[in-house]
Design a protein that fits this description.
By secondary structure, the chain is of the alpha/beta class. It is built from seven helices and 14 strands. It has a single domain, classed as Ribonuclease Z/Hydroxyacylglutathione hydrolase-like (Metallo-beta-lactamase, Chain A, 4-Layer Sandwich). The chain is globular and about 50 Å long.
């Protein structure tokens, strides 16, 4: 494991020198890996990096002493309860829903546990279209006041191209073409840090338009969709993802939203030094 690129440990001494981290809670596609009823080599792999829950992440902006002072959850997958337990997440300041697909929203009810622990309403961010779909299917979770036993989420609208702040993090949202829906890409930095390196999160995407590539300029760390090697109508394949990295030119990139056709060890061996396959539990600092 290349420690210069990432550190998967949570008690790393060098954390005191870091300001921002992203933890991959899940790196799988909508059906997860292993896939139900599949007898392929990857679904039966003993490599823990081939076990992939549905795609989600936690972003943490750290204080100078290493404490996580802002924690943002990206998407609420059907695996959310287990993901929160496995990553020992005990506090979230806000949630960002990138788009209304089942594998990114169906765990929303489990957020109520954080309402209880924190004794506060939690902001949930999404575009107008995403929030409208959320309210139609999960209208009961939205409230400006705390309610016992119910999720209590305050809707906050994302406007594409307009920056917004969540605690110590500043976000720039942009559109991603997911073929069947417009997804929200996110470029973010730690607020108040001079020359802070920019991170970009672009999962569930088939194409990026010129406005999207403009937003991605200056990205230091890129998280990018890479479903499989063969073509897919709504996700980037290996070739498309590599071409996107070549155009964006980040210092490093991590591929996620990975299907069961991809063996972690086999693909990782083919990647250049600055590109890695993400795996569940990986923490990038």
């Amino acid at each position: 494991m290349r420690r210069d690129l990432h550190d998967a440990g949570r008690n790393c001494a060098t954390l005191l020198d870091m300001t921002l981290s992203l933890e991959f809670l899940g790196t799988g596609t909508s059906v997860g890996v292993p896939m139900i009823g599949c007898d392929c080599a990857v679904c039966h792999s003993t490599d823990p990096r081939d076990k992939r829950l549905r795609s989600s992440a936690i972003i943490r902006a750290h204080a100078a002493d290493g404490r996580a002072e802002t924690t943002v959850l990206l998407d609420t997958t059907p695996d959310l309860r287990y993901q929160m337990l496995r990553a020992n997440v005990r506090h979230i300041d806000a949630i960002v829903i990138t788009h209304f697909h089942a594998d990114h929203v169906m765990g929303i009810d489990d957020v109520r546990r954080f309402n209880i622990i924190q004794k506060q309403v939690i902001d949930v961010w999404g575009t107008e279209a995403t929030l409208a779909s959320m309210k139609k299917s999960f209208g009961y979770v939205f409230s400006d006041t705390l309610r016992a036993g119910w999720p209590s989420l305050r809707a906050r609208e994302i406007k594409i191209g307009e920056r917004f702040d969540i605690g110590g993090l500043n976000f720039l949202p942009f559109n991603l073409d997911h073929e069947v829906i417009i997804n929200t890409g996110l470029k973010f930095v730690q607020s108040g840090v001079e020359n802070a390196p920019a991170w970009s999160y672009c999962l569930d995407v088939k194409r990026i338009d010129e406005a999207g590539f403009k937003a991605l300029e200056g990205t230091d760390t890129l998280v990018l969709d890479m479903l499989r090697e063969s073509n897919h109508p709504t996700h980037m394949n290996f070739t498309e993802a590599m071409e996107t990295v070549s155009r964006v030119k980040p210092r490093r990139a991590y591929f996620g939203h990975i299907a069961h056709e991809i063996s972690h060890a086999a693909i990782e061996a083919r990647l250049p030094e600055n590109i890695r396959l993400a795996y569940d539990g990986m923490v990038v600092r």
